[in-house]
Amino acid sequence: MIGAEYYLWIKAFHLIAVIAWMAGMLYLPRLYVYHCQAAPGSPQSETFKVMERRLLRAIIDPAMIAAWALGLWLAFLGDHWGSGWFHGKLLLLLGMQLIHAAYARWRRHFAADANTLSEKVFRIANEVPTVLMIGIVLLVIVKPF
């Protein structure tokens, strides 16, 4: 097993995965806002469907998996399991997983031309990952408890 001598490499790739995950999580709901403005079945709507599917499947999902795998590896190597800040981070990450799942569900609704949500919902949903990210970064860097 690759161990502590590679800790900084693992950390770097974890951060790269997190950045990719967050970039997608911040962009996808913006696509949904614009998709709401397109008539179902229109060429514009069909283009958004392709963009949303590719963003979720090719970037967001793999980046999330890599972020979790590398993050858990770091937690193991750093023995962070008993730290309060780590528990807080995990709680916020569960929130991130919930909004990720909601984004995936909404993508399926758009793909089936069955979206019933308004632009406003997606504008609000766009802010959720940002708030969670701020909390996660503060916990990881400051380690207040």
What does this structure look like?
It is a single chain. This protein has helices spanning 7-36, 43-78, 84-111, 119-125, 128-142. Helix 1 runs parallel beside helix 3, helix 1 packs antiparallel against helix 4 (119-125) and helix 2 runs antiparallel to helix 3 (84-111). It is mostly helical and 145 residues long. It has one domain. It is elongated and about 55 Å long. It is built from 5 helices and no strands. The mean pLDDT is 96.
List strands and helices in order, with pairings.
Blueprint: H1 7-36, H2 43-78, H3 84-111, H4 119-125, H5 128-142
Q: What is the H-and-E element order?
A: HHHHH
Envelope shape: elongated
Average residue-wise pLDDT: 96
Coarse structural class: mainly alpha
Keywords, please?
mainly alpha, elongated
Q: How would you sum up this structure in a few lines?
A:
This protein is mostly helical. It is built from 5 helices and no strands.
